[in-house]
């Protein structure tokens, strides 16, 4: 079940320009991820963030694990060892202790793409009240200028270690492929007069004559 689902997701993600995925041929439950931060408004814009994902044997019923391999990421929700704290990767169901709702946590409708997009969103909008890195959380809250400077340093470092031939995707490359509109049925607009009566019968015409006669009778009274 897990491997079949992962193969389907892998094929879809290999068409995306903002993510680079390599898999272990002997172990499909372990992926190496490269994430381009393509949001031009992000302090992390231009970064190529390396990570790994590990999937349990009962995926997608249980969530994968996500860990950054890019070192020294300064972010409130990234532990010093690179592990990420994010609700979507927490086990299914509500958690009374943390207050997380089931809708915020993992469920079988999620997949790798939804996780990766959630990671990118979290990079720009961290949860500072449930910090994995307290120092980064305080810095983000109290000294955003310094926080942004450190982020830009990391961005520059990641750009030095991108895979050979890889490049930051342009906005044109990220634009969805336009769907060709379906042509209208030309025959519909070229119907003959006979076709336009939509199946009217002689009895309909007789009924109209009867109505006309009734109106004439009324006028004679």
TrEMBL record:
Region (Disordered): 182-221
Keyword Transcription: no
Gene3D superfamilies the record matches: Ubiquitin Conjugating Enzyme (3.10.110.10)
Assigned keywords, A-Z: Ubl conjugation pathway
Residue ranges of domain UBC core in the record: 1-160
Oxidoreductase among keywords: no
Comp. bias regions, Acidic residues: 184-221
Name listed for the protein in its UniProt record: UBC core domain-containing protein
Species name: Trichoderma asperellum (strain ATCC 204424 / CBS 433.97 / NBRC 101777)
